[in-house]
Specification:
Blueprint lengths: L6 E12 L2 E12 L3 E5 L6 H8 L7 E6 L2 E3 L4 H7 L1 E4 L11 H5 L6 E4 L2 E4 L1 H14 L16 H12 L6 E5 L7 H16 L3 E5 L3 H7 L2 E6 L2 E7 L5 H8 L4
Parallel strand pairs: 3-10, 3-11, 6-9, 9-10
Antiparallel strand pairs: 1-2, 1-4, 4-5, 7-8, 11-12
Helix pairs in contact: 5-6
């Protein structure tokens, strides 16, 4: 999919204070339809705090958020999900003892009713999850396979599948390739490029410059809780971005 100039998500002048500590100060961020935005910065730069605000986990101390041009106030992650904003956390938060399909629909399972009795529709869970995995070109033995039997890269893929199973418009990923083997890294990056092709915008937090330059269209750098630099991928370099992370222009 070609990236459009249509802005899906916009955060304006976002500030976040924890008591006397300033985590973010007047941070701005935009995400366009069909693009992958890389968010970089050193530890403590405010990346994770900003993403938690975008995903509804934190409320900003100041600032506004717009989705398709409409101002939105997020009270919880559920509000964010209802808009089509999903976050894939670094710990993935998968239930290892449950099958792949049940993980994808965890908390949003299809139900079948028998009079007053409501039961999980396991047949529908299997059908929908396998169709979704096929759409994303995620290859597993079966959707009945337990997550604890999967490799690290496969688990990351299932976490991404879960985040995109409900008509997501923007998916935020926190260090999606951390601790993965090289072969598995390439599969996750291919999956991210595949999301862009079906019109899903992606925000990636990563310390891995190779990953950023493999999938991102634009890069924004935070430094000490503020916007520091931003550029189209084609107009910058790994060395320049590393400099931004260190606070050098």
């Amino acid at each position: 999919m070609t990236i459009s100039n249509k802005i899906i998500l916009e955060a304006k002048n976002i500030s976040k204070y924890f008591g006397t500590i300033t985590a973010l100060e007047n941070v701005n961020l935009t995400v366009r339809e069909g693009e992958c935005l890389g968010v970089v910065g050193d530890n403590g730069a405010g990346k994770s705090t900003l993403m938690k605000i975008l995903s509804g986990l934190y409320k900003p101390s100041k600032g506004e958020m717009y989705f398709y041009g409409k101002k939105e106030v997020l009270e919880s992650p559920r509000d964010s999900q209802n808009l089509g904003l999903e976050m894939v956390y670094q710990d993935l938060a998968l239930a290892g003892n449950l099958p792949i399909g049940e993980n994808i629909f965890l908390g949003r399972e299809p139900i079948k009713s028998f009079s007053f009795l409501k039961l999980l529709d396991y047949k529908k869970i299997k059908e929908l999850s396998e169709a979704h995995l096929d759409k994303l070109k995620i290859h597993v033995k079966s959707s009945d396979q337990k997550v604890e039997e999967l490799s690290g890269g496969q688990r990351q893929a299932i976490a991404i599948a879960r985040a995109t199973a409900f008509n997501s418009k923007v998916v935020i990923m926190d260090e999606p390739t951390a601790a993965l083997a090289i072969k598995e890294v390439s599969k996750v990056l291919d999956l991210i490029n595949g999301l862009k092709k079906i019109g899903v915008s992606v925000i990636i937090i990563s310390h891995r410059m190779d990953d950023i330059f493999a999938v991102c269209d634009r890069i924004t750098a935070l430094f000490q809780g503020t916007n520091f630099a931003e550029a189209e991928l084609s107009k910058t370099s790994k060395d320049e971005v590393i400099g931004w992370i260190m606070g050098k222009k």
